[in-house]
Amino acid sequence: MQTIHDTKSALEKQGADYLFKKISDLKKIKKQIIFGIVGGRSIAGILKNLSDLLPQENNLHIFMVDERWIAIDNKESNFYVVKESLKYGIFHPFDYKHDIAQYQKEFDNYGGTFDLVLLSAGEDGHVGSLFPNHDSIKSTDKKFIKITNSPKPPLERIAATKIMIQKAKGGLLVFFGPEKKGAYKNFNDPEITIDACPAKLFKEITRGLVLVTKD
């Protein structure tokens, strides 16, 4: 795992270059690539830069690492940010009108494991919809779960579990902004557990890059 400290704009470009290289390498050995993406504005710039590199026709299947229990065309949905930022890809949004088992089946049909993940750490160290010392991070489920008591609104969400994230073959984790300094400190503290800082799950992904703004 490598870490880069730089300005946000520089990191967005480096992150996109890194993901494009990984995608290009995977294309040589896989017909279909599963790319898991979280919500949040922190990842928008990376996706916009990646759009400039991706060909219009590609085999990149976009699944949500987490999603709010709202309509996908709602501007507050995680998918809305992803679709707004990434021009090309085969999108698999989660429709809350359907059950999670249907989304899991769709995910399994394309291999059932994230080839790449794009994650952003929250101020409290949460990642996706896995929150510190919460049922979500403590779940031992191997499939997508529904969260009904999220400590951060909205209460209802769908989330890839820690086991699913741990199995990812590579990816990117970002700590953007001065408000993430505490989370990054906890991420590097060997005394702090994954339950207390879910972003530490990323340390178990061997082929990963961490991007941290220097400010």
Helices and strands in order:
Layout (H helix, E strand, L loop, with lengths): L1 E5 L1 H20 L5 E5 L6 H8 L8 E5 L1 E3 L9 H8 L4 E3 L7 H10 L6 E5 L14 H4 L6 E3 L9 E3 L2 H5 L4 E5 L5 H8 L19 E6 L2
Parallel strand pairs: 1-10, 2-3, 2-6, 3-5, 6-9, 9-10
Antiparallel strand pairs: 4-8, 7-8
Helix pairs in contact: 1-2, 2-3
What's the β-strand tally?
10
* Structure classification: alpha/beta
Which strand-content bin applies to the residues? Answer: 15-25%
Strand order of the largest sheet: 1-10-9-6-2-3-5
CATH class: Alpha Beta
Characterize the overall form: globular
Helix content: 25-40%
For the record, the CATH architecture stands as 3-Layer(aba) Sandwich
Nearest-integer average pLDDT: 94
Total count of domains: 1
Largest sheet: 7 strands, parallel
The rounded Rg comes to 16 Å
Distance between the termini: 22 Å
Low-pLDDT residue intervals, each spanning 5 or more residues: none
Count of alpha/pi helices: 7
Order of helical and strand elements? EHEHEEHEHEHEEHEHE
CATH topology: Rossmann fold
Give an overview in words.
The chain is of the alpha/beta class. It has a single domain (8-201), classed as Rossmann fold (3-Layer(aba) Sandwich), CATH 3.40.50.1360. 29% of the residues lie in helices and 20% in strands. It is built from 7 helices and 10 strands. The chain has helices spanning 8-27, 44-51, 78-85, 100-109, 135-138, 162-166, 181-188, and strands at 2-6, 33-37, 60-64, 66-68, 90-92, 116-120, 145-147, 157-159, 171-175, 208-213. The strands form 2 sheets. The protein has a 7-stranded parallel sheet, with helices on both faces. The longest helix is centred in the first third of the chain and has 20 residues, at 8-27. It is globular. The model has no long low-confidence stretch (mean pLDDT 94).
